Amino acid sequence: MPIEDFAALERQITEVYASLSRRLQQTARFLLDNPREVAFATVAKLAEQAGVTPSTLIRFANSFGFTGFSEMQELFRARLVNELPNYAERIRAVRVATGETPDSTQLLWEFAEANRQVLEALPGRIDPADLERALDLLEGAEIVYALGARRSFVVASYITYALHHIDKRAALIDGLGGMHGEQVKSIGARDALLVVSFSPYAEESRRAADDASERGIPLVVITDSSLSPLARVADVALVVQEAEVKSFRGLSASLCLAQTLAIALGMRQVRQRDPADPALPPPDSGRPTAER
User: Fold this and answer.
1) Where are the annotated segments for Disordered (predicted)?
2) pLDDT, tens digit, for every residue of 171-185?
3) What is the count of structural domains for the chain?
């Protein structure tokens, strides 16, 4: 199985360290001793600092099952994001590692380009059957409850707003006063829960998802991996890949997906009220047709 987080990589490097060649041992020591620098610097700069060739770094990554050094580098970046939740600390870490202080225009171009790429890839990453099943669960619910903690709160808040505007009963679990648990308990058997959560997966979101699963409440999850703890208990998991620039992750793909869910649900409701409306597409429009 592929290595999915920094802690697992660190354990595996430690386990096989003695069997590595001298150059790979030198590489391993440098990587584990300088994780912040590794998160952002180029292969050429890291090779110079480690006293090895760029090909040695690539060979090291390949030996642990990665297709290239940049794939392994993502684990170091994810570690930094989890370790340094404060934006000022992340900015400082980027400057130390790269020696760069990009201007605002450069940052705008980098964020815009990164988000463009993930938005272009989004339709191909979402299984149409999963999208329709999620809509089925939300449509059948008397009330749709939405939960997103910390960074994910924006997405949960938006979808609650959008559902209200299509006349779908919805409630935002905001945890005001530390009452996440009490709000989750108010979800009824005829309701549904939509949880938005990304690594490192907020504990409030995990508890709410587990509770909904145990109680048999329909659960739709927007998350970043099919292996996330929330995806494993969800009735439907919609997996999105967000843009990341210098360890700062976006929300463009998640908001686009949330908007799609709300508007598609609204179109379903209008079609039910007036199925003969010529302005509405037929129920099967937009779905892939079977090959003949």
Assistant:
1) 272-292
2) 999 988 888 889 999
3) 2
202-222 pLDDT tens trace:
899 999 999 999 999 999 999
| 149 and 224 co-located in one domain | yes
Neighbours of 71 (CB within 10 A): 15
Asked if 222 and 198 count as a contact pair (C-beta separation under 8 A), the reply is no
3-state secondary structure of 198: coil
Residue 227 structural domain: 120-273
Residue of 13, 35, 33 lying closest to 24 (CA atoms)? 13
Identify the DSSP state of 274.
Answer: -
Query: How many CB atoms lie under 10 A from the CB of residue 76?
Result: 22
Contact 263, 138 (CB under 8 A): no
pLDDT of 7-51, one tens digit each?
888 889 988 998 999 999 999 999 988 887 888 788 998 999 899
